[in-house]
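Reviewer comment 2.1 asked that we show a complete input and output for one of the modelled complexes. We chose the adenosine-5'-diphosphate case, as it is the one discussed in the main text.
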Amino acid sequence: MSTLLQVESLGVRYGSIPAVRDITFYVDAGEAVCFVGPNGAGKSTTVLTVAGLLAPHTGHIRFDGRAIDGTSAEDIAQLGVSLVPEGRRIFSRLTVGENLKLAKSLRPGSAAATRLLDRVLELFPILRERYDGYAGLLSGGEQQQLAIARALLTQPRLLIVDEPSLGLAPKYVDLVFAAFAHLRAENMTLLIVEQSIRRALAFADRVYLLRSGAIVRHGRAADLRGDADFESAYFGGAATP
Amino acid sequence: MSPIQLAVDALSLGGQFALIALGIGLIFGVMRMINFAHGDLITFGAYALVVPSAADMAVPFVGAWSAWFLIPSTLGIVMLATLAGERVAFRPLRRRHADGTSLLISSFAVGYLIQSVILFVHTGRPKSVSIFPGLTRHLEIASVRVSLIDVVTILVTIALLLVVLTFLRFTRAGLHLRAASEDFSMAKLLGVRADRVIFVAFGISGLLAGVVSLLYVAKTGVLDSRMGVPLAIAGFVGTVIGGMGNLAGAVAGGLFLGIASTLLQALLPEALRPARDAFVYGLVIVILLVRPGGLFVPRNAAVRI
Ligand SMILES: Nc1ncnc2c1ncn2[C@@H]1O[C@H](COP(=O)(O)OP(=O)(O)O)[C@@H](O)[C@H]1O
Ligand SMILES: [Mg+2]
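Response of the prediction step:
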């Protein structure tokens, strides 16, 4: 399997305060990888840096063999990395349809664009119903679906979703993860930030555990499932890998 | 003054302020920066109408051409100046992730630069120039006299607002601009080209400034190196009372300010008229105290994080 995303010794600072120190990880093509870890661990900082919205202080990021540290967010998006950031950040003053059109990388109105839109709306049928309404009027769960649909319309090779289940009712969490499972079956490469260890272990191929800006454990989800140490590491019991 | 005359005056001034407020609001939307140079770009367009010289008598330059050349030339000159300003003064700062304050200072610098160059070339004495002399006529409608230029200003404002709003609403570039105004970094995450969006915003803003240059000179016939300053302030106040970052609000805010000024001018007792602006801006302070987010933003609108 080829490595799609390779991050080496990444360090990120806000001003002079380090938020992420020396993080190294990779995501192979076709894999589903989860980041877990408590609040403030540096998960969002890491994915925002991969997507180009934050500049790395140290380290290297390669996407499909190509160095992308220092590349602008718009260029990284064009290369095929799509981040659904924490808090969804849908454009509330645009309609649902406009939010989606914004992301369409294909020529608007072309047959391929219509097919792509149809496929995405099949995954999230509610968006078809709400197509002409303002996105700001959607419920939290609907907004999350819109944010993911919008990211998919950029035709990413790597989809990164930061805390998709944050603040969602359980039925929406299930719906969103069902969509991820569907994408995975279609060979989409996924990097999901997820607060719930249980869900991460159930879903992912591999899991990284972050704490205080560093990766403290990682491994195959199948191996970590029965591992009592892993959960205690999350809560700070055993901070060393 | 008859109510019709008053309404025409109010809408004409309000229309001009609305165009200025929209020009400032478009740039604020994508840059989170108030472009104080906007007024001086209006001045720049007005001075393009005459031959650069220190002589008191202004010799028409672009202003001597027929309307078919005069209008596009003036608009083109102001658009180019606006885009050049973005390229030279703002883009390098953006590249270095400068904060809003640096950008604001930079816009002051651009404005003063334009004023100083005009002062140097044309001297500080006001000049007079006449364009579209036919427009200074008065119309007699049902025995009410209104000036043609005011009517034209209102019509041009309406047409231009429709064009700009249609562009924003129905084109892809307009969609990108609206999205970037709401959340620029999210737009970038979707692959929207930041430089292109900002280029479009400055281009339209420059177009609007150029139109105001023409309307202003056609009405007053006067050139003055500082003529743009009060216009920029009026436009800025319009965007603030309309709610920063809300384009329809900016238009409404500018309109409101023009109407309020005209009505106060007409209705205040003779002795208080010189203090008209004190009343107008006092009213603005009261509005902002009652509705800090702007007149046209629901009081309980959720703050977006
Ligand atoms: N915009 C910011 N400015 C300053 N510090 C920040 C900012 N965002 C996050 N941090 C800090 O960086 C650290 C990592 O935060 P974050 O990446 O958001 O963690 P997580 O997503 O794992 O909860 C935290 O200590 C947080 O307080
Ligand atoms: Mg986070």
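The first strand of chain A starts at residue 3 and ends at 14. We note this here for comparison with the apo prediction described in Section 3.2.
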